[in-house]
Description:
Elements (H helix, E strand, L loop, with lengths): L1 E6 L5 E6 L5 E7 L1 H11 L15 E4 L2 H10 L7 E3 H10 L7 H4 L4 H4 L28 H13 L4 H24 L1 E2 L2 H12 L10 H13 L10 H10 L9 H4 L7 H17 L1 H7 E2 L2 E2 L3 E2 L9 E2 L21 E8 L2 H10 L2 H7 L4 H7 L6 H13 L4 H13 L1 H15 L17 H11 L5 H42 L12 E5 L3 E7 L3 H20 L8 E6 L7
Parallel strand pairs: 1-4, 4-5
Antiparallel strand pairs: 1-2, 2-3, 6-8, 7-8, 9-10, 11-13, 11-14, 12-13
The protein binds a DNA duplex through helix 10, helix 11, helix 12, strand 10 and helix 17.
Amino acid sequence: MHIVLARRGDGGVTASELDAAGMVHREVDLDGDGLFAYVQAHEPTDVQADAPEQSRPRWVWSSTAQWYPALLAAGVRVERCVDLVLSRRILRTSVLTAGSELAREPASGWDSTVVAAPQASPQAPALFDVDAPVVAAPLDPVREFQSQLAAIAGATQPGRIRLLLAAESAGALVAEEIRFMGMPWREDVHDRVLTEALGPRVAFGRHPARLEALAARVRELLDAPTLNPDSQTELLAALRRVGLDVTSTRKWELRELDHPVIEPLLEYKSLYRLFTANGWAWLEAWVHDGRFRPDYVVGGVVTGRWATSGGGALQLPKNIRRAVVADDGWKLVVADASQLEPRVLTGLAGDRAMADAGRGRDLYDAVVSAGVVASRHEAKVAMLGAMYGATTGDSARLKPRLTRAFPQAIALVDEAAAEGERGEQVVSRLGRTSPRPGESWREVQQRASEPGASAVDERRARSRARDWGRFTRNFVVQASAAEWALCWMADIRLRLRELGDGSLENAPHLVFFLHDEIMVHTPEQYADHVAEIVRESARTAGRLLFGTFPVDFPLTVAVVDTYADAK
DNA sequence: ACTGTGTGCGCG
DNA sequence: AAAGCGCGCACACAGT
């Protein structure tokens, strides 16, 4: 059953209970507290956990980021939802629903809705702020949902798009639950890591001693007493002045140089990065009461990957992962999918040879064993290059061998690239569709095809076309991998509810997600069970995306006290 | 003082 | 080796 929640002008909420055809058969008016009680009453409890499917509601709301934090703060979890804003974005851009009224209607408030995440004080999510309009225009979520149902029903492959929307919405629930619970973060450990590397903390605006010492050493060795080593321009000039033939200050270029300044300079850059990106300022801004609360943006990347806004949760450097420590009596279960993208490509292409090669073992080792390339490193470079569209170097050189060994898989990405070069859209496994190239792209292509086109015009057009082709080549794989990860995580979330008392606070719950990796914070006694769930959910995700096609998705699973020990 | 762009580097 | 995909963030610097 679907229940649509809508805020009324008077600050209350109307719950519209829909029948199987999507028509309203009952409306209930609720105030703030009444909403919590109403939602709680409709959620399956432990006792009803195996109640029939129909009895479990799917909450339909404008956006999960808008509605769910207050429910969580009130102690109410929901099992399933429809996030209308996220769903609409998919439906309006997918080629599977391109013919629907929803896709053809002009943009409305539903498209411009800013899905504001609760900010400022994440540990105390605001309860319903009745004065804050959810959206600018009065939008009717019942009507919107019905319109989306119609679009799905008319889709060329409704099952796929339906699964995608369910996964996207489940992801939105996970993102809010992660934000609500937070990732366990030991401020004292983080401080120790920083102090060991940089020296003791100093006042705001100053640089720690170790950083200052390295900067002084660099100035001395470059004979540049006023050099600001953070200035790329100044640094490049100073390096050239001492006779170093460099074109940039990137570390992989510096690393190749033979000069006494290189070592302290590289160390300076590394420590400076730690200091600015994940130093004490970051700690103060993002960690409170022993929890880091990532600010995920679900579907924030065109491919459907999550993005973050602030906090940099997707870029936590390895050297500070020591600060992620399970609570006393708890464990972290960290799992990542091994070689997710090439395995997803295997499923997309239905490439039996590749599926057989990778079954139950490291895929890159398998490519070596098959005699395709000589080393694991080569296998990895060749595979990634094929998916990213490498044109030079070892990767491009090895590609023909990969093509001979796995013709179907390589043909799939080559075809995606060719479609992109023609300005066409490409589609993920479940229906997420790449954007059309922009106006300027089309103009460049158009100009090159006209009679008076110059060689420069043609070269530019070819170059831009190839650029876009590399994007669409990667899109089909990355977007489908993101779908696998969403299905994986959504299934983990549902299974975890069956452990412990089913609450978030006292039972295993997700605390981190990173493209192909998840982390569960769990009471110690459930850790092994959680590890098993995580593996089982990977099998489920594979079946959801690829049915009976025998591609498997092995995981690396670690039960640890600190994230740093996970790999 | 504010905004946009380029550079560099962290992650997958 | 550091190119071939997708990001966010911090800083320097140039424009206003």
